[in-house]
Amino acid sequence: MAKFNQQKVLCTGGSGLLGKELKKLLQKATFPTSAEFDVTNKRQMEKYIRAHRPSLIIHAAAFTSPPRIDKDPAKAIAVNIIATAYLSALCLQHNIKLIYISTDYVFDGKKGNYKEDGPMFPANKYAWSKLGGECAVRMLDDYLIVRTSFGEKVFPFEKAFVDHYTSRETVDVIAKKIITVLKAGIHGTIHLGHARRSLYTYAKALGGEKTIGKMSTADVSFSVPKDTSLNTAKYKKYEKK
Fold it and tell me: Positive or negative CA dihedral for 135, 138, 143, 145?
C-alpha cells in the first residue's frame, strides 16, 4: 500500500461545508475552484487532471438539498449522477483512486443501524441521485464510498426533528474521520458517524445559548426517513490504530 501523500490529493467541492474543513487538514492538497474544475465538464476536468496528476480524488462536490432537488431533479441528475460518472471514467482512465462522499439517506430509514452491505432503497430524490453516483464509482477497482451525515458546528435551524434518528456529527469531526480512513488506505465502502440519536438530541448536544425547538417529520413537505443511523463498527477498527 502506497503511503498517503497530501500533495497527490485533489478535492472537489472545496467551497462547501466539508471541503472547507478538509482544506484545514490537507493543506498541501489541491482544491480547485468550480470554475477551474467544473464537475459537469468532462473535458475541462481531464485537462486539469493531466496538468496536476493526482493519485487520489476526494469527490465532495454535490447538490444536497432534498427540497430543492424535488423542485429541480434535472440539476441533481447532472451534478450528482452524470458528473460522478464523468469523474469515475477519468479516474479509471488515469489510474486514480476515487473517494466518493455519499449519504446515509441511501437506506430506506425504517430500521437504522445500517451496515455497509445493507440493502439500499432511497427515501427521496436526493438520495436516489447519490446512489446513482455510487453506482458509477463502483465500476472502479480502486475506490472508497464514504456514507455519512454531517452538519455545521452550530445547529443552523430553530427547530429539529424529534422523530428522525441519525448518526450525524459536526463537519469538523467527520473531516477528521475521513483523513483517518484515507491514511489507512481503505477500499470499498465505510460508514462514518456518531452512535444513533435523534436529530433533536444532536442539535441540543452542540450547546450554545440558542434554544432548539422540537418538530416532526410530518411538519415538512419533503420526505424524511425515520431512522438512517449507521453501523460504524468497521471504522472503529481503524480509529483505534
Answer: positive
Q: pLDDT tens, 101-125?
A: 999 999 999 999 999 999 999 989 9
Residue 223 pLDDT: 77
Note whether 31 and 20 are within 8 A (CB).
no
Residue 100 is assigned to a structural domain of this protein = yes
Q: Determine, yes or no, domain membership for 173.
A: yes
Q: Which of 48, 126, 143, 235 is catalytic?
A: 126
d(CA 190, CA 146): 5
The total of structural domains in the chain comes to 1
Q: How far is the CA of 66 from the CAs of 30, 74, 77, 230, in angstroms?
A: 29, 13, 13, 20
Q: Per the domain annotation, does 1 fall within a domain? A: no
Residue numbers of the domain that contains 22 = 6-239
Q: Is 126 tagged catalytic?
A: yes
> What's residue 2's pLDDT?
62
User: Is 85 a domain residue?
Assistant: yes
- In tens, the pLDDT along 63-90 reads 999 989 999 999 999 999 999 999 999 9
Predicted structure pTM score? 0.95
